[in-house]
DNA sequence: TGTGAAAAGCTAACGGTTAGCGTTATGGTT
DNA sequence: AACCATAACGCTAACCGTTAGCTTTTCACA
């Protein structure tokens, strides 16, 4: 898995990065909707089909790190410190995410997103995919079925922190406020493991299903 | 507002209904993705531009009652019985919604939705719009700013019931399970009004902002 | 060096959506 | 009763994201 990449894959990765960088520049300069796929391909000096073999959609060009974001979220749960509860691990994770949002580059990026309906929608469906991934890890950690209502309800609630933090004047406070609302009494039905002694379930989680 | 419509508007409404009915039939018969806009327009005997002057997108043809659904949701809060709390009113509302889902026509409709990625995505962004509307009513009812974190968190949690109920083997139980998790202790921060004596705030709500 | 496979390319199209512009019907006003 | 502003509808032609089909280049490995 973590072998040296080889010339071929290095070139592929380079092409991919080059396309994404070119697109990002153009988006930031002229706005997402004002830049066409054919233009991007021309500017990056690749064929349109090549572009689409690297990215599933135009929006994915802007949200290149979307998958990484999901992986980090899953990691926050599976790789949390022993004796740390899942809610606590998630709170910590989202505090870090929110700090990242404050970076100047991130601020500019999210302004770009806000200016384009297409990107806004893409972002919100992204949170939803994360929701599914989070549900799967938590269910696995607790030994529950993936379809568990409480797991899904919990994941859904937690992922709501993304839009909330983004639109709040004080994102860090919003994160804390949301997680403070998760009281030990909140999850009442047969899943005290949510808050109780952490990491009791030994089931390993084999990564999210990338599309 | 509720005057007699006049010939012009009656014709317009008739055209709209005719287009929607034609489209629905074709979708149910051949599937959403297998029917093209140009076909629908031809079958309804209107121009494509006319079709798009009535509906903002192809998906909106299938989800024609989306706006009504949102209105009913808002109504469930503003028009609830005196002394009924907001969570209780919403529980009642969603129990009714879930019952509606069990109607044979509804079952067929939702199968259609499940079979098309485009419609699935449209549905989930629809819940999100409802989320904004619900946040606005609740904030208005409680005299809070629309951007209140707790209001948004609460609305977000509640709207999660839609996908949850749809994918649950026992939707009614899922609804109850979700609302049972909303304990009086859940909303702790300065908003005990969520569960407390209902309808104390007299602010009228002037309907959702239709696009 | 040869070979199979992955990566990249080209052309052409498909399907949703919109712009531009013209025509007709309707409702309200003088 | 004549009139005008405007809403509703229509036609044509395109734009834009995306994909299929097929050829060419590049690399890994024998």
Automatic annotation (TrEMBL), chains A, B:
<dbReference type="InterPro" id="IPR050109">
    <property type="entry name" value="HTH-type_TetR-like_transc_reg"/>
</dbReference>
<keyword id="KW-0805">Transcription regulation</keyword>
<dbReference type="Pfam" id="PF17754">
    <property type="entry name" value="TetR_C_14"/>
</dbReference>
<keyword id="KW-0804">Transcription</keyword>
<feature type="DNA-binding region" description="H-T-H motif">
    <location>
        <begin position="36"/>
        <end position="55"/>
    </location>
</feature>
<dbReference type="Pfam" id="PF00440">
    <property type="entry name" value="TetR_N"/>
</dbReference>
<feature type="domain" description="HTH tetR-type">
    <location>
        <begin position="13"/>
        <end position="73"/>
    </location>
</feature>
<dbReference type="InterPro" id="IPR041347">
    <property type="entry name" value="MftR_C"/>
</dbReference>
<dbReference type="InterPro" id="IPR009057">
    <property type="entry name" value="Homeodomain-like_sf"/>
</dbReference>
<dbReference type="InterPro" id="IPR001647">
    <property type="entry name" value="HTH_TetR"/>
</dbReference>
<protein>
    <submittedName>
        <fullName>TetR family transcriptional regulator</fullName>
    </submittedName>
</protein>
<keyword id="KW-0238">DNA-binding</keyword>
């Amino acid at each position: 898995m973590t072998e040296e990449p080889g010339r071929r894959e290095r070139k592929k990765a380079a092409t991919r990065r080059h396309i994404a960088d070119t697109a990002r520049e153009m988006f930031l300069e002229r706005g997402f909707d004002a830049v066409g796929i054919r233009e991007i391909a021309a500017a990056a000096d690749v064929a349109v089909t090549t572009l689409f073999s690297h990215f599933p959609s135009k929006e994915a060009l802007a949200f290149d790190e979307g998958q990484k974001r999901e992986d980090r979220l899953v990691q926050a749960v599976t790789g949390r410190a022993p004796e740390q509860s899942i809610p606590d691990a998630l709170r910590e994770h989202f505090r870090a995410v929110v700090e990242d949002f404050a970076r100047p580059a991130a601020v500019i990026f999210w302004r770009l997103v806000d200016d384009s309906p297409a990107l806004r929608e893409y972002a919100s469906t992204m949170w939803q995919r994360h929701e599914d991934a989070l549900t799967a890890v938590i269910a696995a950690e607790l030994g529950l079925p993936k379809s568990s209502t409480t797991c899904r309800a919990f994941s859904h609630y937690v992922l709501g922190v993304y839009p909330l933090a983004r639109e709040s004047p004080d994102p860090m406070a919003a994160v804390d406020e949301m997680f403070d609302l998760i009281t030990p009494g909140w999850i009442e039905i047969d899943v005290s493991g949510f808050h109780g002694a952490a990491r009791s379930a030994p089931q390993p989680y084999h990564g999210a299903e990338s599309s």
